[in-house]
Amino acid sequence: MPDQPLKGALLLILGEGLLAVMAAMIKSLSDHLDTEVIVFARNLFGLMFLLPIIFYRGGFGQLRTRFLHLHMIRGLTGVIAMFCFFYTIGHIALAEAVLVKMTVPFFLPVVAWLWLREQIGIRTWLAIIAGFAGVAVIMRAGTGQVDPVMWVALAGAAIMSVAKVSIRRMAISEPAQRVVFYFAVFATLFSSIPLFWATTLPSGTDYLWLLGIGLVATGGQFAMTTAYQIARPGQVGVYNYSSVVWAALLGWFFWGETLVLTTLVGTLLIVAAGIWNLKAR
């Protein structure tokens, strides 16, 4: 299949937009629903929407795997990271939550080096340093009064990088559709456990919002997966940063959130480091 960078870029922007909408819906529900409930519903309804797509695109025979243990690792780490991200969304500005999540690409080379023994070039090390300098600015680390929620967000990004490296470990034999399916299954199973200590339950229109989260998340995943199937990461990867723009617009429109100077400076550092490293690939 020939590369289609324009279509890939548009799909990636669409996918990031859908995930930003998902984040806004989560923030709206977080004021009266426990994170445990929202995470489980997102995975359950996401799986529900995914099953007919899997059946339509080749049936369930394609799901046989030799890497069940790696799918379990990805599911567990992905759910823990999801808990961190969803909790963060409910407690800080939407754009800041998304920005800290964008540090995943800076953790990835380190995890891949430790786990897969992949070498890290000088350019990548410099990008990692610059990226985390941007995070330090956003967290206002120099003041000595870092919001603890920021540490939760950063931990979520680190754990998410483990989940993503596990995908790379399976890349030889596991197609994207199989990876997405097993993540949905294990994420639903693992996220059901914390429900035992949840203190709130959805009611009324909450169920429609939770269904919407599952639908939008599934749509976003498939848009982004398709984008990387029809275009090389080096061609379209920069458009991942559109998520920050989407989140800033949604946060401003619905909650009147504005970005302070430190957040803007940190954003420039993170985005510049990410783009610079991406161009080297």
Task: Provide a concise account of the structure shown.
Helix content is 74%, strand content 0%.
Describe the protein in words:
74% of the residues lie in helices and 0% in strands. It has one domain (5-278). The protein has 281 residues and is mainly α. The longest helix is centred in the N-terminal third of the chain and has 25 residues, at 5-29. It contains twelve helices and no strands.
Helix/strand layout:
Elements: H1 5-29, H2 35-56, H3 68-89, H4 94-101, H5 104-116, H6 122-138, H7 148-170, H8 176-192, H9 206-230, H10 233-236, H11 242-255, H12 261-278
Helix pairs in contact: 1-9, 1-11, 2-3, 2-8, 2-9, 3-7, 3-8, 4-11, 5-6, 5-7, 6-12
**Unreliable sequence segments:** none
Helix content: over 70%
Mean pLDDT: 85
C-alpha-based Rg, rounded: 18 Å
